[in-house]
Amino acid sequence: MKLIVGLGNPGIEYQFTPHNAGFLAVDRIADDCGVILSNRRGRALTAKARLAGHEVLLAKPETYMNLSGLSVAALVQELEIEIPSQDLIVLYDELAFSLGRLRISANGRANGHNGVKSISGALGTEEWLRIRIGVGKPALEDGREIKAGGKDYLLAQFRKQELAVLDEVLDRAKGAVEAVMTEGVSAAMNRFNRRPEDPESGSDGSKET
Q: How far is Cα 103 from Cα 190, in angstroms, rounded to an integer?
């Protein structure tokens, strides 16, 4: 069974904030699969589903972001996942990417993301697959990037126009999960690691891990 985890903070006050992009992505997958994350196991809300021909367990840790690793490690142990790089996919927000971007990575450092740091620490490895959902501010017309404001921005509610962009990204995040499971990581990276404005045949550094 594949374990698909979305990162975020529990509580209605955090529901539609940038830091909860992972939760929202897993909710979208659950909705499309016709299941509800209502079971509690491994300190997470979970639901079994069938996605792209695979049995999967969808999970949203209830530990709050900074302790996400406690939940992920418990679920990995319960499901007897021996190789996280093959059977674990984690979706989470990425402040370094503007809203609308998506990137699949086979491994990587936390880069200041406490949820990622917690998972790598609990698993004892950075070798686990992640899908990063951009939540940063879009670049200005002259190409200059806007610093989004860190924690205050991540825990503030999305604005209406941002939610419209996010809605499309969540569909692509589900597609990225399906592609990883059916086509393999490399092929999925080639498909999904482009900037939204790149031509269909282009690639945005898909070899990066």
A: 10
> Which residue in this structure is represented by tokens 């021909």?
53
Q: What is the pLDDT of residues 54-106, one digit of tens each?
A: 999 999 999 999 999 999 999 999 999 999 999 999 999 999 999 999 999 99
In this structure, the number of other CB atoms found within 10 A of the CB of residue 142 comes to: 5
Q: Which of 96, 130, 133 is nearest to 17 (CA)?
A: 133
Interior angle at CA 116, CA 129 and CA 13, nearest 5: 115
- Residue 109: strand, helix, or coil: coil
Q: Per-residue pLDDT tens for 9-56?
A: 999 999 999 999 999 999 999 999 999 999 999 999 999 999 999 999
Tokens of 46: 């979970």
Quick check: 90 and 5 in contact, CB under 8 A?
yes
**pTM score above 0.70:** yes
Six-digit token pair at 167? 């809605």
Whether 54 is catalytic is no
- Asked if 92 and 132 count as a contact pair (C-beta separation under 8 A), the reply is yes
Select which of 2, 19, 28, 103 is catalytic: 19
Given a contact cutoff of 8 angstroms between Cβ atoms, the answer to whether 170 and 25 are in contact is: yes
